[in-house]
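Review form for a predicted model. The reviewer records the input and the model, then writes brief findings.
Reviewer: anonymous (R2)
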Amino acid sequence: MGDERIRTLGDAWQHAIGSVIAAPGTGPPRSTIRGVATTPSYSTTDIRSFFDRSASTGSPERHGHAQRLLEYRLALVRSLAWPRPTDVVLDLGCGNAHHLLALGPELARGIGIDISPGMIELARARVRSLPWRANLTFEVDDAEELKGIADQSIDLAICVGAFEHMLDKRAVLASIYRVLKFGGRFFCLTLHADYVWYRTIAPLLGFATQHLSSDRMLTHDEFIVLLDQAGFRGIRFAPWTFIPKGDVPALIALLLTVLDAIGRLARLDSLRGGLSLCAWKQAKST
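Model under review:
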């Protein structure tokens, strides 16, 4: 009964916020609220250029305290995907290798791929001074094809904050399935299309909701369909806290933080920005 009251409160809070924001004259004029400028993007070439530019600045964390966010994301990887010391791990859209560098000492081997040559150069530069650098390699590759990765050679594939940027998601999942060993796992952290920020608040305020016009976020149900079509089984989902602090004013970030807290208590995934999942390639029957 207590949980139901909390859930009802969360629904009422979400509705009230939408009503207040939509009500004329109750907030700043839309013309004074600047959204995140969405970069026009229509192809892989556009996406590559965007992330090459980001790499030129070092690709710093934009949405909060870098170390705390890293530890939080890695905790989700460990709780859902169970990395093992014998694992060969593929990091798709590895960027500056933030996550793979942290996981490196725990793995037999790590492979980072990204379509951005700038990001791969940044990752290679960061790994040069590490004692376990021989276990990590970084290559320019497209997640839709994974030309440089052999069939059934990967124990765990991870994709953190990159899946929404990938154009042909069916092709990406098919490639991941191909390179995974039987019994291998695919772990993904991505943005949640049902998040109240993207569904309600940002459109009402006139905020852009994506960094690239070609980005596409998925709902829980859409992801299940794509994973099932690719052959994955044993799919497990969990919400995770994503608050786009680097894209919004501080007051909006505070609002989203409060909504996230309500979402955790009320188990309302729509109040939380992230979607995490782990899916298995079934072991080969004998």
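Findings: The chain has a mean pLDDT of 86.
Further findings: Residues 51 and 158 are 19 Å apart (CA to CA).
Recommendation: see findings above.
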